[in-house]
What does this fold into?
Amino acid sequence: MSRKLAYICGDPGIPPDGTKGASIHFREFGLALARAGWTVDACTARAARTGTFQTRSFGCPASPTELGRELVQLIDQRAATTVIQAGGKHDAVYERYSLFGLAGLAYAQEQGIPLIVEVNAPLWEEAARYRNLQLQHVARGLARDLFAHADRVLAVSSVLAEQLEAFGVDPDRLQVFPNGVARDRFLSPAKIARPASLQAKTCVVFVGSLKPWHGVEFLLENFARLPKDSDLGLWIVGDGPLASTVERAVARFPDRVAWTGQLPHEDIPGVLASADMAVAPYTEHSPTYFCPLKVVEAMAAGCPVLASRTAATDSFSDWIHRFDAGDGDGFLSLATRLAADETKRRELGEAAREYALRCHTWDERARELDDIVDEARAAVA
It folds into this structure.
C-alpha cells in the first residue's frame, strides 16, 4: 500500500531543479522514494521552473540584507506549515535540515507522525563562517530543538554524525545516511564527446562548481607544470567563482586544459564515461563532514578516481587513489602512473563501480528509509 511522505526542503538557496549537489541530492532521492512506492509530496522554499520534479512552494520573500533574510525565514515558518498542511494527510515527514526550519517539526507534532531530519552540514557553523550569520544563537538553539524532537537524525557522513553527537544529538536516534546515485543513469550512459583538444590525450576530468575549496586552482597550477610532451589533459566541467581563472588557463594552455562549462546533470554520467580519470582535489581547508557526490558519481560510472586525502574521502579509500591535499608532486606522479597503465585504470574503475552501484544508490537509501520510518512509527505508537 502506498504511503504519503511530506518531503521538505526549506532552504531558499536550493532550487529543486537546480544543478548543484544539494539540488541533485534532493531531487534524485525524491524520485527514488517515488520508485520505492511512496507518494512524495515535495514542499520547497524555492519553486521549480521545470517539470522534472514537481514541488509545491511555500516561497521565501527576498530581502536586501543578511539579517532581513534570516528574519524572513523565521517569520515564514507558519506559512510553510500551512503549505504542508494543504497536501492532506501524510504518514511521515522527511525534512532536509535548513537554518531556522521548523515547519516540518510543527506539522509532524500536530499530526502525531514521525519526523526524519536529514543533515548535510552544520549549517549554523557554515553560515557564521561564510555568510555572516546574524542570528547565530537563534540558529544553534533551533537546531538543537529540531534534533531533540526528531524521531531520527540522518547524517551524510560518519564525521558529521560525530559532530552531531557532540552537538547533543542522541546517538540512539542518529544514523549515517550517505549520498547515492541514480543507478539507471550510470548503467550504460552514452558518452559525451570530450573536447577536441584532449582527444589524443589521457583525459583527467573535474566535475563540479568552481569554488576555491574544490581545488580547481591546485589543478591549474599543476597542469601548468607539466612538460610540453605530457600525455595528460585536464577537462573542467562546471561553473562558479573561479570561472575567469579557468578561462585564463585555457587561453594559456589550449592543448592541455579544456573547459566545457556547466552541463545538465543528466549529461554527467556520459562525461565520466568518456574520461580516463576523475579528480576531486579538495584542499586542506575543505570541510571534512560532507559526503562527496562527485566521488560517488565517478565511481558509479567506472571512472578511476584521484582524490585528496581528507576525512571526507576516508570511507572510499579502498576504491580510489588518494594523494595528500596540496601535494602537487604526489598528484602528478599518481596521475602519470595511472595514465601509463590502462589495465590498472580499468580494474580500479570496475571495482569502484561495483561497490558504488551496490552500496551507494538512491534506491538503496529509499529502501533504508522504509525501515527507518517503520521503526519510528512503532516508537511513536
Observations:
- The chain has a mean pLDDT of 93.
- The chain has two domains: 3-180+361-380, 184-359.
- The CA atoms of residues 155 and 161 lie 5 Å apart.
- The first strand starts at residue 3 and ends at 9.
